[in-house]
Amino acid sequence: MRWLVGWSSAAAATGPGTSGARAHGGPGTYAGEDAGRIGHDGETLHPVGSQLLWGDPDPLWAVGDWRPDEVRVVRADARTRIAVLGTCGATDEQLRVGLFAARGGALRHLTAWPGSYTAIVQVDRRITVCGDLAGARPVFHTPWAGGTAYATAALPLADLVEANLDFGHLAALLAAPDVPAAVHDSTPYDGVRRIPPGHALILRAGAREIAGYEQVSSLAVAAVPADPDSAIDAVRDALVEAVRTRLSAPRHVPDIDPGPVPGMGPAARRAARGMPAPGIGADLSGGPASGTLALLAAGLPGMPGTLLGHGTGAGERLLAVTFNDLAVGGREAELERAGTLAANPRLHHVVVTGAEETLPYADLDGPLTDEPGPSLVTAARHRARLAAGSADHFTGYGARQVLDAHPARLADLLMDRKRRHLVRPVAALTRADGSVFVPARVYGAARRLARTPYRAGVEGLAERLMHRRFDDPGGAVGASLAALAWGGPGPAARWLTGEALAEVSVRLQSTAHRAGGGPGQRPGDYRARAALARHASDLRVLEQAAEIRSQRLHAPFLDNQVVRACRALPETLRVQPGARAAILRTVLKSSGVADLPAGWGAPTQATTTAAARAGLRMAADPLIALFDAPLLADAGLIEARVVRKALRAAAAGEPLPLDGLADLVSLELWLRRLLSRRGTCWTGTPARARAVPAGIAPQRRAVSSGGEGADLAAR
Question: How many angstroms separate the CA atoms of 348 and 345, rounded?
Fold first, then answer.
């Protein structure tokens, strides 16, 4: 894991409560700067494994295995500076211009450079920390020592303040994970808060403010018509620039291979030792997103492949990795398309095979992640693929969320009086279902959503949770109808206790009252942003759980500039069937890649469901044993026997929501890893200064969250 952490004090730190920055040996220090705080017993606090970027009174550290080119600090004077951590395509001069703009209050400039990064600006005692648009690089904060501590990870802050678990947040993750009103700004740790995507945290001498830097579409007027061709050209330019930024960064060679192993080639030897190949590579699943990035990276000038003298010795060929699941069939056409794409002479194709040992749930051991996420149950499966990848590895994560149309966007079209554009998506649903009543049902649901205020929609969801009304959407039509709402119950909600559902219901009602008229967005746009934020959060968990030493995963579709370009696509274009593949095909064609295999862009979600069911069937006994005495039951969120019964039924083939079971299993695994950890993220603190110091006390009554919802419930 890599993160940055710092704090803003209420007053300048002077006297015995500080220690010299030079004592910590951090870079970027200079005479007169200090860093550190006195702990419980007089020790100086600073993060474990950190490098100091600047010191007191408002210090900032970079923690973890950051590469030298991933940490940049540019100063205008002694008290005006900017730090950028991550992959950023801006030059030092552009960073300096952005620093001057931020000094005047303009924040959007800090988020408009290509790449994926976190920008922190300090102007005297004012500190600005910018989050990203997708939520893949979040920012957290918590009150501490009369000021505010902030970080790009929640666990260090939880250790700092000895935060307990927020059971209300955990219940909301299970009951309504796609509804921002349920989770709001909370985290799994009580008192540690998250800023929303598209916002910045502004600290002035310890006082905090959260400000949005992105314009939100208005409900009062229709969206400005956009030209489809120019919008697709903007997506192409943003994607090409995102890929070029990664290619132009310094190349990194992992630890030198210690020597040959009889019967193993270089690639197999590196994978067995957990070492990525030198240079740059990409996923090549056969789908449109990964294929687009692989072809763009291979086609751009600048040596996009392995380094000369390392690996295959191919020099300029890009390492393309395809995962072949031998335990679950049905991907033959996709693999064939990947092989056709890999015939490009600038690609070096590697096929990674996986059997039963790479199915979901097969390997439940893994590292502790910052937050829980459903990808914990598939981390070993992804690690097997990534171990054969490169030191810098492109992935197509996020393309579906930024390019596809959420079903709720049909209501947006009705609000903008664009009914004729509903014809093709509704016709596709009719063909999939085969019923002549589909058009009337879909149109009626879209019309209801268009006329339903945000507050009424959230209160309706709260009532559904309170009375345990859960529908089982069947097929594409059922899922689309269920998504035509401001929010719906999560797939795991049916297995929560009544007390947990009541807690989430109270949180929803209190949020609806605070929101007043609503978020100021159309329902489709609102749901699409929420889905993107959830996907980005789970990708962050996956990146930590499946981490390969010396490897960086790159998801250009989640870069700020790519997200902005995709949001500018006309809704009338993105709601059409096959829009994502058509857009990416146009992007490739305009970039000089026109020869794509037949069937490129066909959906492949069915194989994911089959793999999840097969893995659940293979690991049924260990999973049932996991819920013999679960921590989730001690927290009052579930009844253990109910979940064990559901696991047996799902393993036997009953049509239960597998996503909900993955949510339950991953959260239970995360809780066990959190409570079994030793140590803390900070040095100079007593052993008790860590998150959840007292563990989970068994409770049978309503869960407590420590948030406003809990206060309402208590009243």
Answer: 8
Beta pairing class for 60-63 and 50-54: antiparallel
Beta-carbon contacts of 698 under 8 Å, excluding residues fewer than 6 positions away, are 633, 634
Q: Is the pLDDT of residue 78 over 90?
A: no
Q: Among 611-615, 635-639, 681-685, name the one with the lowest average pLDDT.
A: 681-685
Tokens 């007027």: give the residue.
221
In whole angstroms, give the CA distance from residue 337 to residue 601. 10
Three-state secondary structure readout of 304-355: CCCCCCCCCCCCCCEEEEEEEECCCCCCHHHHHHHHHHCCCCCEEEEEEEEC
Split at pLDDT 50, 70, 90, the class of 304 is low
| Structural contact between residues 468 and 642, judged by C-beta atoms closer than 8 angstroms | no
Cα separation of 470 and 142, whole Å? 36
Q: Are 693 and 153 in contact (CB under 8 A)?
A: no
Tell me how far apart the alpha carbons of residues 361 and 611 are, in angstroms, rounded to a whole number: 10
In this prediction, residue 258 carries a pLDDT of 57
Count of C-beta atoms within a 10 Å radius of residue 455: 18
Give 31 or 492, the one with higher predicted confidence. Answer: 492
pLDDT tens profile 461-476: 999 999 999 987 777 8
Please give the span between the terminal C-alpha atoms of the chain, in angstroms, as a whole number. Answer: 41
In this structure, what token pair is assigned to residue 5?
């952490």
If you average pLDDT over every residue of the chain, what do you get?
86
Backbone angles phi, psi at 705, to 5 degrees: -115, -20
Q: What global pTM score does this model have?
A: 0.91
Phi, psi of 119 (to 5 degrees): -110, 135
What is the per-residue burial (b if ≥16 Cβ within 10 Å, else e) of 456-493?
ebbbbbbebbbeeebeeeeeebeebbbbbbbbbbbbbb
Q: Is 221 exposed, middle or buried (0-12, 13-18, 19+ CB in 10 A)?
A: exposed
| Contact (CB, 8 A) for 173 and 437 | no
Cα–Cα distance measured from residue 598 to residue 596, given in angstroms and rounded to the nearest whole number: 7
Pairing state between β 199-204 and 207-212: antiparallel
Beta bridge partners of 54: 60
d(CA 539, CA 559): 13
How much is the pLDDT for 171?
A: 96
User: Binning pLDDT at 50, 70 and 90, where does residue 693 land?
Assistant: confident
Assigned token pair, 568: 């500018």
* Closest by Cα among 142, 161, 286 to 690: 161
Asked whether the predicted pLDDT for residue 32 surpasses 50, the reply is no
DSSP letter for 156, please: H
Using the predicted structure, report yes or no on whether residue 15 has a pLDDT greater than 50: no
Whether the Cβ atoms of residue 286 and residue 316 lie closer than 8 Å to each other: no
